[in-house]
Design a protein that fits this description.
alpha/beta
Length: 646
């Protein structure tokens, strides 16, 4: 037994235990908490064979025991992993946000329970392999795919992104989302992890708060009854318009409007009816003004208005007349027909005042003058301005009627060769008689015609009449050269101008080469690129082109050479002082030299003296137009002059 102990106890936790039963001896070894039995037939010590067998068995037992231990540990590890996995899934499914992860092709690899519910899926496993085009939010799939690609390409996370989302019921929601790249230990992106939470309620709250703030702000700056700007907002806008007008050298008009006899409406029908009348008047006024204008209410039956970007007071009058006309129909309230008229006072910045308070005060004063004048009218703060406006309105009315009746006449002024006194051409000029054998100056009525658009029908009449006259002269054997006719910018910009020109040529039988169309330098330089295209079309018809008043419009030489023109006309402002003004002499010489270098004909207008003519001819300008040779004359006198030159 001692020998056995020494040789084979190695690795045993205890010495063998010997016990007997039925004349047999048993040796029990306890090894690493496992039992092992050796059976012998006698109580004698084990022989060598048994010992060797024991050694082999012991080694196998060790391996078996280790295998059992490894299996038990692996089983334990798997159980721990399963427990941790279950815990992680519980955590992911418990957090109140949607979580998902995708591969590099934007295919879903997994998600939590809330995400699966949004995707209208019963089980998360049903999500695997699908993409956003398979989801209820397929309408936003392009947006999401692009975001995924950006994150994969750049490796930069997208955080706190607010996006629209269509849920499983087709309703639109708002979500706050983040997406981050999934990167392995080698730094390579292998997918995307994302999460989002529903912020629809938050967005609705923000919207409601904004509506509340806007409502409070609107109440602070607007009249409760009409919704129009109140005094505070109106004065703020007026000051802004004044600063802008000062910077751009423009005018601002302030109108003070009062409802006539409004107290009678309140006293007879009550304040409720009065309020309804005020609201209806406000709506009618708003319907007549421009988008850039402002109307406000300070209280009671008074309205105030701002007209900005005013070039001429007549613009204000036109709008005022529309406002007053809008009151012609009765206001129907509770079965009652209420007729309302307005008294309006007008002040103009900067002529009448330069501050907002003074403009309002002066407009108010003008309004009271309108009431004193019988109500249902308007007055400017300056009486002289009121008179000028009334005269302007009367002129416009006469002009409309005269165009309708063709109550105009053409005058003609010859263009003379300063060397041999031959007639080289004729300019057509419009004249208008007032019915008392007094002529109204073109400088008076042409601006009105342009501002009102009446220049379109008037210009067409001039073209037709001029063509008819030159056709007649040619038919009578007279050769007046080219007939120059002035065309306004409004005519040129009309989309059908070229077709009208072609129609008139055919209608009158006028040859294109008999005509020369004049445009002023200042007009064509307002939009030179557009003018180049229009003038090229005219030139293709065979009609010559000239630039009138040259030297006053600051034209660019680069544009000048692109215009398809034939003639430059030196403005009379340079010709007038040629005899004693060195600057005018220098400018005139420069224009002549420029025309010569561009191979253009040059004409000087406004020539009245021999001295002026001599200077012009000696410096290369032989075409002369002015009182030196002839004043503008009617067609019969021009015909006599043509016959005298034969």
């Amino acid at each position: 037994m001692k020998e056995l102990e020494e040789k084979y106890y190695h690795g045993c936790s205890h010495t063998p235990i010997l016990f007997e039963k039925s004349n047999n001896q048993y040796y029990f070894f306890e090894l690493n908490n496992f039992g092992y039995l050796i059976l012998t037939k006698s109580a004698n010590p084990l022989d060598e064979l048994i010992v060797k067998s024991l050694e082999k068995i012991n080694l196998k037992l060790l391996h078996a025991i280790q295998a059992c231990i490894d299996h038990a540990e692996q089983k334990h590890l798997e159980q721990e992993i399963q427990k941790e996995s279950a815990l992680l899934k519980t955590v992911i499914d418990t957090v109140p946000i949607r979580i998902f992860w995708k591969d590099l092709e934007s295919r879903y690899l997994g998600a939590n329970k809330l995400f699966a519910e949004d995707a209208n899926l019963q089980d998360v496993d049903q999500l695997i392999g699908k993409n956003d085009y398979d989801m209820p939010w397929k309408n936003e799939a392009d947006l999401y795919r692009k975001m995924d690609k950006d994150i994969i390409d750049t490796g930069i996370a997208e955080l706190n992104i607010e996006e629209p989302l269509t849920d499983k019921e087709g309703k639109h929601k708002w979500v706050s989302k983040f997406k981050v790249p999934l990167i392995d230990k080698n730094g390579k992106t292998f997918g995307i992890l994302g999460a989002y939470m529903d912020i629809t309620h938050k967005k609705e709250n923000e919207k409601n708060l904004k509506l509340q703030r806007d409502a409070l702000e609107h109440q602070a700056y607007h009249d409760t009854l009409t919704g129009l700007p109140n005094r505070l907002l109106f004065l703020d806008r007026l000051n802004q318009y004044i600063h802008k007008a000062h910077r751009n050298k423009q005018k601002v008009a302030v109108l003070f409007i009062d409802m006539d006899r409004f107290k009678e409406i309140n006293d007879s029908l009550g304040h409720v009816f009065g309020d309804e009348a005020i609201k209806e008047v406000a709506q009618r006024i708003e319907g007549q003004i421009r988008e850039t204008d402002t109307i406000g209410r300070f209280g009671g039956d008074e309205f105030i208005m701002i007209f900005n970007d005013i070039s001429d007071p007549i613009v204000v009058v036109n709008i005022v007349q529309k406002i007053m006309q809008s009151m012609h129909d009765p206001i129907m309230i509770g079965g009652h027909s209420i007729y309302v008229t307005l008294s309006i006072g007008i002040s103009i910045y900067p002529e009448d005042a330069e501050t907002a308070d003074d403009l309002l005060k002066n407009a108010d004063a003008a309004m009271y003058r309108a009431k004193e004048d019988g109500r249902n009218t308007y007055k400017f703060y300056t009486e002289d301005m009121t008179q000028k406006v009334f005269e302007r309105i009367a002129l416009e009315s006469k002009l409309r009627q005269s165009i309708k009746d063709e109550n105009f006449m053409l005058y003609f002024q010859p263009q003379i060769n300063g060397k041999d006194n031959r007639i080289m051409g004729i300019e057509t000029l419009i004249r208008w008689e007032d019915g008392h054998k007094n002529f109204i100056s073109p400088a008076t009525f042409i601006p009105v015609a342009e501002e009102t658009g009446l220049i379109i029908p008037l210009g067409q009449w001039i073209l037709r009449s001029g063509m008819q006259q030159i056709v007649k002269w040619h038919a009578d054997g007279l050769y007046p050269g080219r007939l120059a006719i002035n065309i306004s910018m409004l005519q040129l910009q009309k989309h059908d101008f070229i077709s009208i020109l072609e129609m008139l040529l055919e209608e009158t039988g006028c040859q294109p080469q008999w005509l020369e169309i004049e445009v002023t330098e200042s007009q064509i330089m307002k939009n030179p690129e557009q003018m180049i295209l229009i003038l090229q079309k005219i030139n293709k018809l065979g009609i010559s082109l000239s630039i009138d008043d040259f030297g006053t419009g600051y034209s660019s030489l680069s544009y000048l050479k692109r215009f398809p023109i034939d003639t430059l006309k030196i403005d009379q402002s340079f010709v007038k002082d040629l005899s004693d003004n060195e600057e005018d002499k220098a400018i005139t010489k420069a224009v002549i030299a420029l025309a010569e270098s561009l191979n253009l004909r040059v004409i000087a207008e406004g020539v009245e003296t021999e001295e002026q003519k001599s200077f012009l001819v000696s410096n290369g300008c032989i075409n002369i137009q002015g009182y030196l040779y002839a004043k503008p004359m009617p067609a019969d006198e021009m015909e006599k002059m043509l016959r005298g030159s034969l």
